[in-house]
Structure formats: C-alpha cells, structure tokens
Amino acid sequence: MFEKILFATSATEVCDHAARVAFDMADRYGARLTIFHVLGVPTRGFSQVVLDVKTGEHVTIDDEYIAWVKEEIRTYYAKQLETAGEWEIRVAVGFPHREILRAARSDSPDLLVMGGSTGEEDAVAVYRKSMVGSSVQRVAKATHLPLLVVNRPAASFWGGMSRIVFGTDFSKSSDSAFAFACNLARNLQAELHIFHALDITSLQLGRTMSQDQIESRIRESLRRIYGRYIKGGIEGVEQYAYDVWEGIPYIEVVKYARENHADLIVMAHHTRRADPEDARLGSNIEQVIVRAGCPVVSIHG
C-alpha cells in the first residue's frame, strides 16, 4: 500500500513517536523511507549563515556542516536503521514548511509523516516554535498527500492496528478521506468506525436547538451515513460501525476515538477560507491532531 514514505523530523525527542511509526510502517510495507531534516532558516537573503532550528544557534552552512548533520541524524536513529530496509537521509535549508512541501512534490511519496509537540524542554524550544505548530498546520493545508501526524506517546506504534475512526462532515473533501480509510481498513483487516459530530453550538447554528431537534438531526445524519458510505462504498471492509454524536465536533471526535480504542483517526482537511473564529481556533482536524491520543491522517479532497 505504501511504497515511499517521507518522514520530516528534527531528530529530537519531539519526533520520537512519529519516528517509531514511520520506521515501523516502512518495515511493514517494504517502503523506501526518506528521513528529511530542515537545517535552518537563512538569516538574510541567500546568506550561508542560518538559524539552526534544532540548536537555535547561527551556523555557516557548507558541505562539511551538512555531512556532520547527516551523521548526527544517522547516529540518532542508529538503532532503527540497523534493521531498516531502503532508506536515505536528506537535509535542506529554508523555512521548514516550504522545504517539506518542496520535498513532497519532488519525491511524490505515498505518505508524509510528521511529529507533534510532546513537551517543554528548552533544547527543542526553537524547533517547536518554528516547525511543530505552524509548519504542521501549513503543510496540512497545502499538501495533497496523506499527512500522518503523531502527537502522543500512547500511539507510537503502527503495528497491531485494529480500529480506524473516519470523521466526516459529509463534504466532498470527506469522500477522499473515506476512500483512504476504507482502503487502509481493507489492507489491515481493521474495523472501520464512521463518525459524524453534529455541531449544536450556538456559534454554529445561531440559535439553541431543542432536544427533539437534536435527535431528529441525529437520525437524519445516520441515514446520510448509511446512504453515502455503507451502501455506496464500504465493500471489502468486513467489520464496521457508524455513529452520530452531538457537541463540539473536534471534542466529540477525540472522545469517540478514545472510547472506541481507535488506533488511527482519518479526516479531511478543508481548504476553504474559515471565518474569524474558526481561524483563531484552528480547523476541526487541527484541533483533533493536538488533542487525540492516537495518530491522525489529514486528507485533502
């Protein structure tokens, strides 16, 4: 299913959980793994002096320094590389999200893997500020590749996956995410849980809904799930379930995944312009990435 995997990393503990998943997936599928690291941001123009995103120091980039960084990365992942199949280490200079997107366009991998923030250690503060927050968001918004974000230590291993949660809002973008989730469930012989969170916030609807109205909307959503997904495209997935809960969507998705012991959440990332409140809070999937206890795959429609 996956032949090429691009793993964007800082080679620090921030990305350790994502690294375990990336290496395990590469081994499981016999995929070529590219370990990609952005050295730093140029201090001005095309200067050879950059701000190293890992150390926060100004360094001069030359062939010797690049070779040293590659060796550091090789040493950091030495244990995983001992048993890895086909792999390479690549480095680049520039703004992290731009270089990751450039590498993704160049390599055309089947999956892009990134890590999330896992602590407050000073050693990785510069990387966290420049990449983990804004860069994951920017990459998710711009890439048309499936993006797997691993943000929590509880979900460090891809092996043994048995339950996948697909979160839908019935948009066209969600159809692409559903196709990916179905394909994954078939290949891994995993349970597929189709879930919709009915947004009942006054901010979303402009009014308060009665309980009868909420339950009517839930029944309507269940019918939509059955007609759109169960009848139309779940062939080959032997075990599946579908549910609708009411509440704040990203909170309900995280709760549903936790209660169903999900190993993965798959959702669509929308590119439409958000209103000011959504822009401040971040899209639902960005909030799910931050809060979920398992990896999250972002799919563009």
What does this structure look like?
The chain is an alpha/beta fold. It has two domains: 4-153, Rossmann fold; 163-300, HUPs (Rossmann fold). It is built from twelve helices and 13 strands. The chain has a ten-stranded mixed sheet, sandwiched between helices. Helix 5 runs parallel beside helix 6 and helix 10 runs parallel beside helix 12 (284-291). The longest helix has 23 residues, at 211-233. The radius of gyration is 20 Å and the shape is elongated. The two termini are 19 Å apart.
Give a topology summary:
Layout: E1 4-8, H1 16-29, E2 32-38, E3 40-42, E4 49-52, E5 58-60, H2 63-76, H3 78-82, E6 87-92, H4 96-107, E7 111-115, H5 125-132, H6 134-142, E8 147-150, E9 163-167, H7 172-188, E10 191-199, H8 202-205, H9 211-233, E11 240-247, H10 249-259, E12 264-269, H11 276-281, H12 284-291, E13 296-300
Parallel strand pairs: 1-2, 1-7, 2-6, 7-8, 9-10, 9-12, 10-11, 12-13
Antiparallel strand pairs: 3-4, 4-5, 8-13
Helix pairs in contact: 4-6, 5-6, 10-12
